[in-house]
Amino acid sequence: MTEPKGRGADWTEERGTSDEGRRHLKAPRRRAVSGALWRRPWARATLLLTPPLAWFVLLYLAALVVLLITAFWQINPFTTNIERVFTLNNFTAIFTSAAYRGIIGRTVGMAAAVTVTDAVVAFPFAYFMARVASPRTRTALFVAILLPLWASYLAKVYSWLLIFTHGGLLDWALGHQVHLIYTNWAVFTVFCYLWLPFMIIPVYAALERIPASQIEASQDLGARTWRTTRLVLLPLALPGIVAGSIFTFSLTLGDYITPLLVGGTSANFMGNIIYSNIGIANNVPFAAAMALVPIVIMAAYLLSARALGAFEAI
After folding, report:
1. Which of 36, 43, 79, 259 is packed most tightly, with the most Cβ within 10 A?
2. Confidence grade of residue 77 (pLDDT, cut at 50, 70, 90)
3. Vertex 240: Cα angle to 235 and 246 (nearest 5)
4. Residue among 265, 142, 264, 155 nearest 200 (CA)
């Protein structure tokens, strides 16, 4: 900003005075706004949560609404164009077909089996970390648990594909007697490996919060290890187990890459049906109707988990 000719120091002093005056005028406004927000906590929460909630509503809830609407449309069998007319044909085809009912049952059964297996494996591991391991050992175990999460999902799946394939590590170690590649057992094993960290961490958090005095009181009253585990540890750690099961169950329910790569064409799950109808069959309304099935299942599962207090351990 150029200084006017003939004014010199007087103009500089006047400009400094005006800037200081503007700052003094802004200060009371800021204090008034801060005081209003301090007296109204709901206003602070509103200002803080409005941008992320608006983004969430725009991207997630709007997409679910579009999915719900699309599920009630149909494909013209001659032109393969989407006809935007209300129909229940997609849901009728899903629930009246024995093949689709079997796929839904197989997917839910796989998700339940993976969840139970991961819970059984995670509980003693998490107990050792929370109650037995030294701080240095606990840190090393945390690194071992979290390190695979930094690796690429596809890299981990392909590594198991190399283990299970004919002539692979497992085939060589067992003398070419067991062939798990492209079977549901291979899919089950990979799912258990992929989602195990998501079960260990919530269970560890739940076990760490259990007071040591309760375990000592159980032992002082004569309860042995199994009885203490069954009557003290498991009930108190149940919210953490259920919290971990939300991750393992939902991730298994919607995954289609692992069944496609490890299970091959014979592994049919809900995710594969949705994927094939979007890509190969070009039947988006049917894929949307099938996608609503795991959403409804997970909604019921989350309501049950909430009743068990699982959200407190997430």
Report:
1. 259
2. confident
3. 125
4. 142
